[in-house]
Amino acid sequence: MTDSVRIFDGHNDTLLDLHVDERGGGRTFFERSETGHVDLPRARDGNLGGGFFAAFVPNDGWEYERVETDEGYEMALPPAVDHERAKAFTYDLLARLHRIAAESRSRAESDGVLRVVGEYDDLEATLADPDTIAAVPHLEGAEAVAPDLSNLDFLYAAGVRSIGLAWSRPNAFAEGVKFEYPGTPDTGAGLTDAGQSLVRACNERGIVVDLAHLTTAGFEDVADQTEDPLVVSHGAAHAVCPLSRNLTDAQLDAVADSDGVVGVTFAAGQLRPDGGSDPDTPISTLVDHVEYVADRVGVEHVALGSDFDGAGILDAVGDVTGLPDVMDEIRSRGFDEAEIRAIARDNWLRVVRETWN
User: Fold this and answer.
1) pLDDT in tens, 27-45
2) Are the C-beta atoms of 141 and 171 separated by less than 8 Å?
3) Tens digits of per-residue pLDDT, 172-200?
4) Cα(164)–Cα(230) distance, rounded to whole angstroms?
5) Does domain 2-356 match CATH 3.20.20.140?
6) Beta carbons within 10 angstroms of residue 69's beta carbon
7) In degrees, to the nearest 5, what angle opens at C-alpha 314 toward C-alphas 262 and 303?
8) Whole-prediction pTM value?
């Protein structure tokens, strides 16, 4: 049954929500909250076994300006963030994650233990323990990485095992895709020389390279160079919702050719075929993307990448406690138990094993 399948989620922004009071309202990871999407009690209720916990650096003072077009909308890219600011902010987020993990081990009243995981055998063992949740540190955008990669080993020592080269803005390594509906990811430049070096360095160390938010050119540059499976931590199918951030059929094919995986987001604005962001959207719309990717390139290349605490999640999901409802809707489409398990966790485990080991 669905309830027996512990889920590995490809992306959340819970660290940022906990770190910035105006986002999370000062909530903690250990107490059940009515705000945000993930805390330890709710994660247990939702059968979350683990996931990539993102360190994301927001633009300071930037306000998105949405420009309406005849067919939809577009938004300009935010400016680049300063590396030193990004580094300090990211180090704070990673330190917070390690503090949460340490505190979870010492709290007698805790609903379980959060464990920072950076080795495959530890990840597999943690997912097998119903009292423990695995947190894999991830950088959403590589701004905290020095352009000469001089702090990459320090970040690795801090547990970072996944790096998204860019968010939707430029940095020293790549350019992210802008928001545009309808639109395509072919919106800007590819990897810089430093970006090419970062991909090689990640391959050497066993760090997942996340292609979420990359332009078409950047995506193709990584595909041409990397030795590891292509990974998109959170995204959706462009054929279902023609948003510039979503993956074209050619990109889905490339992920499958590399034996990689796409985590399907729960963000309404990336899922709805009409490009709208109304969260009053059924779970079936989310699962339309899961089913499309599975039909296009095989069930072994689709997983979940919620974007909890980082996006406008479907009301029908609500928060992490809605994960079993998502799995039930996937089951209703005719996926068998082995396929359910693959989508819930095994596809992520395969690409992590192939990349880390």
Assistant:
1) 999 999 999 999 999 999 9
2) yes
3) 999 999 999 999 999 999 999 999 999 99
4) 12
5) yes
6) 12
7) 20
8) 0.97
